[in-house]
Each structure stands twice: as structure tokens, then as C-alpha cells.
Amino acid sequence: MQTPTYLAAELRLPTNWLDYTILGIYFVVVLGIGFAARRSVKTSLDFFLSGRSLPAWVTGLAFVAANLGATEILGMAANSAQYGVYTTHWYWIGAIPAMVFLGLVMMPFYYGSKVRSVPEFLLLRFDKASHLLSSALFAVAAILIAGVNLYALAIVVEALLGWPEWVAIVVAGFFVLAYITLGGLSSAIYNEVLQFFVILAGLIPITILGLKKVGGWDGLSDSLSQSRGSDFMTAWGGTGIGSDNPLGANWLTIVLGLGFVLSFGYWTTNFAEVQRALSAKNLSAAQRTPLIAAFPKIFIVFVVMIPGLVAAVLVPKIGTPGSDLQYNDAIPYLMQQLLPNGVLGIAVTGLLAAFMAGMAANISSFNTVFTTDIWQKYVKKDRPDEYYVRFGRLITVIGVLASIGTAFLASSFSNIMSYLQTLFSFFNVPMFVVFIIGMFWKRASMKSGFWGLIAGTTAAMVNYFVIYKQGIIDIPSDQGANFVSAIAGFVAGAVVMVAVSLFTAPKPVSELQGLVYGTTSPGMSEAPAKGDDAWYRKPALLGWGAVVLAAACYIPFSF
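C-alpha cells predicted for Na+/galactose cotransporter:
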């Protein structure tokens, strides 16, 4: 998918003092939350995991807000302007089932084992080689993705408000640095809760006014069906094997590549997300975190998809050589055309909040992994707890500075959306196959985790850079290639893990308690607290409710 990393120069917004006042108030509140959270930081557990004390509704909203970054807002609206209703696959197939699986199946292992990070689980289940490799890969990826969010923010602010690119990068980086350094994860999480509502306050008016502009849903559907074909307004039209469609994918690669491998790889092993659940006050709250997040996730697709569809009606040639507007101009264009001052300030604030939430999620997970999984485990062991809190703050500063550097590095890539999806297929998918086999197969040996990571990453890269880029196999689009790379990485990692396990020694069963399905640990057998048995506090009911609701939303768009 071609999503250029620039916006049209003519999208400058008519902002005034009212809009900047709203933006200023937001930044003051962000810093205020950081100072307030600082008082609760007394130990390294407080700084990195909020002392495992937060209620499920807070961690649930932070969980979904952490994902509302650059690709979610601009990227998915661009996706909709180019591909239409196919965008629903990234939500109802590519998110909800994996979030439910994380809550019902994987959180008992994560939370019950008392790990402080996702890579630390690999240390307990496999060996130091798997742990160190996964920690290093995640730390690098977190900084790269944080930089992409910063750069995407900068190009939006430059086009919409006229700020120089470097000013936007430095200002946003400073505010993220300030509130994470002050209050640690608690500050990031409470700001993400605020950002969740600010983001929706910006997107909902765009969606409502956009629909009104094109004659409601019926007018939108009729216009696009006539100009783009009937499949443009359906989720599955034209996805038969051998059929041609703009997405360049068929139902098999959508279900397996996106719905299973990429989706489960991202939502179940990406520590930037899982960290929010690990900060919950008990196992029940940790399980409910991704399940609570799944309900707003079901409906967020509408406030990012509909603006993209509206832009495709209002600018019929959007994204083509005959238009000055690219696909990722969809939301900024509607902001310029539809929103009055005041509401415009809220929308700009929501857009900045989205980018800051995405960056903060990666920075807070980076400082945890680097401090606890690399520095404390392999560099400076057995230091006082206060030392690791101070180092966590220091590495946060370094992480933000590195992100500012990678933000400028990101400007050399012509396709941010595809770039991030490719990274996920390279790194998240191999991590997922190692986790899923390690959690469900006791015989998986200590050495198999390391070689599974190597094989999965290598296979995904070979498929993308050699088989796809060199034209050995014709895959119509980058997105289709990412789906295939994800499948290749999963299969290769699984095959190598099984082969290595057959020739190397497994861990003793006594060391697998609470780490493999069928074994238990004290945390996993935790009884619910008195008064904690209401239906909305039961993970299984919440999980199945989310799946049923997502399926019900899918039906009107399926055919």
C-alpha cells in the first residue's frame, strides 16, 4: 500500500487563538498528570509496572489508547480511502480475536509468573540466549516505532499548523519525556486514558459531519459503489482465491496472515500493549484489560474508516496522479473542510494525542525492557532498587533522544504504513510462534526458542526482500506480501522449534510450573476477591461478548 510520508501543502488549517488555547490546556494537563503520578513512584515496580495496582478500566482504556498511534489514525483512514470496507479486517479479524485470546489464555501465564516484561517470560521458559535476543530486538523495534510516531506527528503539524518539522519533533518528544520520566508507567497510562477521550472527541465530529456532507451512509455507499465498484463497500467481495482486488490478498491470506499470525503476533507478544495489563492490580483485572479494550476497539473502526470513505467521495481522484491529495491526506482534508474553530482545536489536539500515545507506549516499554531485561540481568546485577529507578529515568531520556534521531531516519522511507507492517511480520510473528509453542508444548526445549526466533525472522525477511521484491512470486501489493511473510515466518519458526526440540534436552517439568498449559502457579489459581464476581468482572463472559459483538458488526459489511 502506498502511503507517502508527506501531506499536501495546501492543507494548512485556519487555526486561531481558541484552537491554540485548547492545545495549550491539553499540554498543561499532561504535565500535571506526570507531577501527580511522581508521588506514587517509590520502587522500581512502581516506576515500571505502576506497582501492579491499577484497576481494570484504567488499564483497559490505556491498552486501546496505546494502539491509537500514527498508523491507526492516518494510516487506517488512508487504507479506507484506497481499499474501502476491507479496512474492517484489521479490526474484527486482525484485533478482536487476538485480544480475547490474550485475556483468556495468555494473561494467566504472564501475570501468574510475575514477569515484569514479555522477554522475561522467555528467560523463564527457555534460556538466556532467547531472552537476550528477544530483549535486544524489542528495544530496537520500540525506538524505531516511537520515531515513526514522532515523524508522522511532525509532518502533520508542519502541514496543518505551519510549525517547522524539527520543532514539532522536539516539542512532542519533550512532553513525552517529561511525563514518563516524572511518573513512570502510571503517568503514561493515566495520560493514555485522557488521550483516549481526546482522540475520540476529535474523530467523532469529523465522522458525523463527513457523513452529513455526503448524504448519510446511503449516499456514501451509493456514490462509492458507482465509482469504485460494489466490492469497495463490502468486506469480502473479490477475495476469492485467484480473484483480483485492490488489497492484493485473498480470504486465505487475510484469515491466516492477518487474522492469525500478524494479529496474534502483535496483540499477544507486543510488550507496549501487554505492559498495560501487567500493571493491573490482580489476575482478574489483568485478564479483563484486553477484553475491556476490545469493546471500544470494535467501534473505533467506524471513526477511522468512514472519514477515509468520505474523502474518497469528496475527492474522487484522491491518491492518483491526477490529484494533489494523497490517501493519507484524508483526515487532515476533512478537518480543514468541515470543522469550525474550537472543534478544530479539539481535533488537532486529538491528532497530537494519538501520536503521543503511540510514542509513549513504546518509550515506557523500552525503558522497562532495557532496564530490567538487559541492564539488570546482564550488566549491573544486584544493585539497590533505587539504582534501577534512577537508571530507568536515565534510559527514558536516552530513549526519547534516540527516538528523535529515528524520527529523522524515518523520513528516508517512502511508506510508513507498509514499513511498520513489515516490521511486525519480521519481529512480532517469530516471537508469537515461540510463545505459543512454548506455552502449549512441554517438550519444547530450552534451545528451541532462540533458533525459532532466528528461523522465523529470517524466513519472513527472505520472503519479503527476495521472493517478493525480486519478483520470484507475483504478489500484487506490499500488504499482501506482508501477509505472506507473516505466514512464512510462522511456519519456519514452528518447524525449526520442533526439529531442535527433538534433538536437544527439554527443561525439567518442575521448572515449567505456571509457564506451560496444564501446569499451575499460585497467581494462576488466584480466587476472586469477595464482591468481585459480577458478570462484568468475569473474563470469559467479557471475551465471548466481544467476539459475538464483533461478529455481529461484521455481518452488514460482509456481502
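The two ends are 24 Å apart (CA to CA).
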